[in-house]
Design goal:
heterodimer, A: 600 residues, 17 helices, 31% helix, elongated, B: 380 residues, mainly beta, 2 helices, 40% strand, globular
């Protein structure tokens, strides 16, 4: 039975990273290669030894696919390709290819330079790894090799995020990565066609969440900023250069305009350059509708938002500043933080996840006394807030996606099976598909029922349909043909053609059956009786009485002879070829029932 | 979209906190369960309705709103599937059971909340009722005094108390049909011996289960020229064992609000007219409830897409018009923005500890949690 095997790599129940191995029709694909952000040692990397004990990964894996640039999906990629060793193709979308190395480098700097770790990838490794990347466009079918093809679908979530369809022959798997089904200001909702994959692989972690609306999150953000500015405080928003900064700016700009606020909003210059680059990437990525709204206004021509100068940080009075980097681990945002941290009127709003070891992570964990460079202690009196604008699917979203794609099976990773029984039942009941929930390190085997297309020769089709109706109209029609498997194609042809192509001679099989009939009359009279009987019953068949005294029913021959010992018994010889087996058997049983008395 | 954006900006000063959620299917009940959990359930389809027990976001789990709160979402803790629409749900105190009811008949369904190893709410048994005419659905209330009991019935003369686990009948009203067989709109345990029964006609009765024949009636509501439906809201203490010192509110589909002190049932404590639009789809979702942590405050809903909050402390029985202290309009600004009819609020409830926090649900599947700001110039 053909099957698809899925193994989420990772230990125990941890949900910190994505790295899934899929085997489909003899091809092996790795989906995502994430780093577990919670560990500081080798546990942060997926356990690749599971894949192949001593063989080369390059030989075993046909390709690696990365869904988007978040570190829990791509963070272990350079380690995997350069330190463990993989030289095959790595597929991702164009924006992901552009943004990944920046994030990886940032992450590397924090881990190695700040925390002094040694078993980590180098800058050169990141570069070498990216050389193996093949960028793909949305809805473009990419042939990995002769049999394996992949296609990316829009996933929403973050810039460049994609869901991938992996197809070999007529078996396919769709991997969703992270996605969301509700559109927001600059990223649309995920979309997939009714591709009916054998398997849909998705995350279970968000499936049991009912998410607060984006607008309420934005409202909360505006409220916090407004309250701080109203009391004369300063708001610092550390942002990643190529992320939601632009969206938050649009939000604040609209709010400032509406409320007629005067406090200055600044955007650090390092951001503007990178932002333009982001803008270009973004414009080619989004769809027509969103592109139009951004073409109407240049994202960086804000009325209320100005470029930041270092000196402004010392200005009195309220202000809002967007500065990089996003985790407060270095640079301008850290500088500003140090200046403002001591005043409780001020606020810092962290817009995303912070890696361990960064100042961002420390203050989010509740630390209020930080040791800075030169053993200086910094007391943090400013308010620390965290806003997550990251868009993820929830229970409703998963159901919507399943409805769109119509998979035959669903597999959810990163969940505790017993805690997900309700969701499993829900999916199984609503869609009548099987739902699997493997633990990390556990392999799930899904049986597929691939359809194998077979071409039938026209001649055969015509011939088989030309034969008259069967005695029993309720039975399905049985066709005889020969299946030829040649050059990866399947054809159904007539036996004669098959024999010809194969250069074989045909053997004829003929069956003869004896039926005893009580009839003292002469043979030719018996034959006449049989003929009239059959003619009366088999009205749709060609029943003929030949001059030589035999009867034919279609191609079946019936002859009568006298029994050698008993004059009162006639022996009917019913003879047919193998192809006429059905009719032949039918005739025989019919004749065995005997002839009606009253036939002349 | 414009109006919705405008409201959101206004909401900055109208609310301390605001969360809006979208359930997969609309609910007409919001019930608090032990551990500050919230239960909702579907009522629309003929089968496959979900019962969900949700863990609210951390802001709602504690009395004080914390500053740093990244988590703003509800989590589905466990769920079950109901063959029939769920119109009413009550947790059975001191057990891990809950009871639901809904059309097409008066029977009750008993469910078991998940054990450690599963998140599925399992159907355990059905409590059938005798002489079930199958025309309406049972209203229910639960208590765990002498044993876990469920009070249920759809008509005044068919009220029963059944022991939940054994399904044994413990009490049946001795009320003859001649004295009243009106449809009930609500019932409650005032304490382990006293029942409060409210009919859709507005008739409010007190029954003592130790004396099934006796029935104390509160002063009748004023009769109306056209058909009018009534529902009631009573203060439920945490264990349902509080005495009848809090007034009972009766709300009509025409917007009349009557408060009755159960120690003096022969008169109205207060009677006002609230300004609500005349109900279009009837009184199906009429709801009135008292604030558990804010003395004298109640909320009403079911007329349109709004929830009104009132301060009853200055009310008298003159029947004059009362002004709401606050109106929650969020449901009218639905997520999809102008998709057909405006949604109707199906139910609302107050947070048990946070004085000004309410939860409300509407027919479009929305679920709002809001903490309103007391407008200046009002005391309380």
């Amino acid at each position: 039975m053909p099957e698809i095997k899925v193994t989420p790599l990772g230990a125990g129940q941890d949900v910190g990273r994505s790295c899934i191995l899929v085997s489909i029709a003899g091809k092996n694909v790795m989906l995502d290669c994430g780093m577990h952000m919670g560990y500081n040692d080798d546990r942060r990397f997926p356990d690749f030894s599971y894949i192949t004990q001593n063989g080369r990964l390059t030989d075993f894996l046909d390709c690696v696919i990365i869904s988007h640039f978040h570190l829990d999906h791509c963070g272990a990629l350079p380690y995997f390709s350069e330190m463990v060793g993989y030289d095959g193709p790595i597929y991702m979308t164009h924006p992901t290819k552009a943004i990944c190395p920046i994030l990886l480098e940032d992450y590397r700097k924090i881990t190695v330079d700040k925390k002094g770790e040694t078993n980590f990838f180098t800058s050169q490794m990141i570069k070498d790894c990216m050389k193996k990347v093949v960028a793909v466009h949305l809805h473009q079918t990419v042939q990995v090799d002769e049999e394996l093809e992949i296609k990316a679908y829009y996933a929403g979530h973050v810039l460049g995020a994609a869901m991938f369809q992996i197809k070999v022959g007529c078996e396919s798997v769709v991997y969703t990565g992270d996605y969301n089904m509700t559109p927001d200001r600059h990223l649309g909702a995920a979309w997939i066609d009714k591709c009916r994959p054998d398997l849909l692989i998705s995350e279970s972690t968000y499936a049991t969440t009912i998410r607060d609306s984006k607008r309420c999150r934005e409202r909360d953000f505006l409220k916090k900023v407004h309250e701080t500015v109203e009391r004369g405080g300063k708001v610092l928003i550390p942002v990643f250069a190529l992320g939601r900064a632009q969206e938050l700016c649009i939000l604040l700009e609209t709010f400032w305009e509406r409320m007629n606020l005067k406090a200055p909003i600044y955007f650090s210059t390092g951001l503007t350059e990178k932002a333009n680059h982001y803008y270009k990437l973004f414009i080619t990525w989004t769809n027509q509708k969103i592109r139009k709204t951004f073409v109407q206004r240049n994202m960086f021509e804000f009325k209320h938002i100005k470029a930041f100068d270092r000196a402004f940080a010392d200005n009195p009075g309220p202000m809002v500043v967007f500065a990089t980097p996003g985790m407060l681990h270095a640079g301008q945002s850290l500088q500003i933080f140090r200046k403002w941290a001591g005043n409780e009127k001020n606020m810092v709003i962290m817009p995303g996840y912070c890696v361990q070891g960064t100042v961002g992570h420390k203050i989010l964990s509740g630390q209020r006394k930080l040791e800075m460079e030169g053993r200086q202690m910094l007391e943090v009196k400013m308010q620390v807030e965290y806003m997550s604008f990251s868009a993820h699917a929830d229970a409703k979203g998963i159901m919507q996606l399943i409805r769109q794609a119509e998979p035959r099976n669903v597999l959810l990773v990163h969940g505790e099976a017993k805690k997900m029984e309700f969701l499993k039942q829900k999916i199984e009941q609503e869609f009548h598909v099987s739902c699997f929930m493997p633990a990390n390190g556990e392999t799930t085997t899904i049986l597929t029922n691939p359809c194998i297309p077979v071409d039938i020769s026209l001649g055969l089709l015509k011939r088989e349909t030309a034969i008259g109706p069967l005695p029993d109209a309720k039975k399905p029609k049985l066709m005889h043909g020969t299946l030829l498997m040649k050059d990866n194609s399947f054809r159904l042809v007539s036996p004669e053609q098959a024999l010809k192509e194969l250069g074989l001679a045909e053997h004829q099989l003929r069956f003869t059956c004896r039926v005893h009939i009580q009839d003292p009359r002469k043979e030719h009279e018996t034959v006449l009786r049989v003929y009239n009987h059959l003619k009366g019953i088999l009205k749709d068949y060609s029943v003929q009485h030949l001059p030589d005294g035999s009867i034919t029913v279609e191609s079946i021959l019936i002859q009568a002879t006298a029994h050698s010992e008993d004059q009162g018994t006639k022996v009917l010889l019913v003879s047919w070829t193998y192809q006429d087996e059905e009719l032949g058997s039918y005739l025989t049983s019919l004749l065995k029932k005997g002839l009606p008395q009253s036939t002349p | 979209m414009e109006a919705a954006d405008e409201w959101l900006l206004q909401s900055l000063r109208l609310y301390r906190d605001l969360h809006t959620f979208e359930l997969q299917a609309p609910t007409r009940l919001i019930e608090w369960a032990p551990g500050n959990r919230v239960c909702v359930a579907g009522y629309g389809q003929s089968h496959g309705n979900e019962i969900l027990q949700l863990i609210p976001p951390p802001t709602l789990l504690t009395k004080e709103t914390q500053g740093l709160c990244p988590e703003r979402d509800f989590k589905v803790e466990c769920g079950g599937f109901s063959e029939r629409p769920v119109y009413s749900l009550k947790c059975v105190p001191d057990t891990s059971l809950l009871v639901t009811s809904g059309p097409p008949d008066n029977s009750l369904q008993v469910w078991q909340m998940s054990a450690e190893d599963s998140d599925v709410i399992k159907s355990v048994s059905t409590i059938a009722t005798e002489n079930d005419t199958g025309k309406s659905w049972a209203k229910i209330a639960t208590i765990s005094a002498r044993a876990p009991w469920v009070l249920h019935g759809s008509r005044l003369d068919r009220v029963q108390i059944t022991e939940v686990e054994s399904r044994k009948n413990v009490y049946t009203t001795g009320i003859q049909a001649s004295r009243g067989s009106e449809e009930l709109s609500g019932l409650a345990f005032l304490d382990c011996n006293t029942l409060l029964l409210c009919c859709a006609t507005g008739r409010l009765c007190l029954a003592d289960i130790r004396q099934p024949q006796r029935l104390t009636e509160a002063t009748a509501v004023p009769s109306a020229p056209c058909s009018e439906q009534w529902c009631m809201g009573s203060r439920h203490g945490a264990q349902g064992l509080e005495t009848s010192s809090q007034p009972v509110a009766r709300l009509s589909s025409r917007g009349l609000l009557i408060l009755t002190d159960l120690r003096k049932t022969s008169e109205f404590l207060a009677s006002v007219k609230t300004r609500v639009p005349s109900p279009g789809s009837g009184a199906e979702f009429l709801c009135v409830s008292w604030a558990p942590a804010l003395e004298g405050y109640l909320a009403i809903s079911g007329f349109d897409g709004t929830v009104h909050v009132y301060d009853t402390q200055s009310w008298d029985s003159s029947g004059r018009e009362a002004e709401p202290v606050f109106i929650h309009k969020g449901h009218a600004f639905g997520g999809a923005g102008g998709s057909g009819d405006s949604p109707l609020v199906t139910v609302h409830t107050w947070h048990l500890q946070k004085p000004r926090t309410l939860l409300s649900a509407a027919s479009d599947g929305s679920l709002h949690v809001w903490d309103w700001v007391q407008p200046c110039g009002k005391c309380g």
